[in-house]
Amino acid sequence: MQVKNLAVIGATISIGFPMCAVAQAEAPENTVRIGYALVGFNIKSGDLTGLPGTTPPGLSIGVKDLDVLAVSYERRLSSNWAIQLQAGIPPKLTAVGAGTGQSVGTVATARIWFPTLMARYTFTNVAGVQPYVAVGVTYTFFTDEKSSSAYTTAFQGTSSSIRLSDSWGPYARVGFEYPIDKAWVINAEYSSFRIKTTATVVTQTPGIGAIVRTVGIKDSPHIFGVTLGRKF
Fold it and tell me: How far apart are CA 228 and CA 123, in angstroms?
């Protein structure tokens, strides 16, 4: 898992940096940003499905909103264009029961990663602030997936394991920066990207054995962020 993810991220970076090298002589400018982002979810979940007779209808999944430490690196190609790589410390995602399963509470947790590569266009003819738009692609994957004891108990099992599938999705952002001085900038932004994953849960059940249940989940989270940037 770790090796595959690092390979994907490395390949993504390698696409952007040859382009940066071409423009290095014209506009050698880098920016590192760090700050806070709120990720708001509005999950569209299917119903949990499994072996007939073992899974009541109407069981679905919800996800709690996230607080994220946002980190990004930007390489400027010209006065208007830049390539930006965004990462950060993966927050802990908490999935809760929804629909007829709302009373169960927390059903699973996982670390969610969504490294993103974007092309960014800045409108430089605006006085005072610098508004911009950006589009790119996000690779979403999960680590440390854990099913809760509440989920296992609800299905009269002895233990459960969970796996969340990876996905690629488009990413879009609008925002503006305010230059404090030649080296420091404050950035405010709104972003959204697409997630589509399938959760597969295997529960060991006395008298039956391993029962596999799955549920499809998709969303386009809303992200509001504020960061402080250092140019060099």
Answer: 19
2-31 burial string, b = 16+ CB within 10 Å, else e?
eeeeeeebeebeeebeeebeebeeeeebeb
178 Cβ neighbours under 8 A, 6+ residues apart: 128, 129, 130, 185, 186, 187
**Contact present, 171 and 191 (Cβ < 8 Å):** yes
Express each pLDDT in 39-95 by its tens digit: 999 999 999 999 888 999 999 999 999 999 999 999 999 989 999 999 888 999 999
Q: Is the pLDDT of residue 172 over 80?
A: yes
Q: 132 with 164: CB under 8 angstroms?
A: no
Q: What is the spatial distance between Cα 174 and Cα 75, in angstroms, rounded to a whole number?
A: 18
Q: Please give the domain boundaries of the chain with CATH numbers for all domains.
A: 2-231 (2.40.160.20)
Query: How confident is residue 28, by pLDDT bands cut at 50, 70 and 90?
Result: very low
Burial 154-182 (b: 16+ CB within 10 A, else e): bbebeebebebeebebebebebbbeeeee
Pair of tokens at residue 6: 């690092």
Residue 17: is its pLDDT beyond 90? no
For residue 145, which amino acid is it?
E
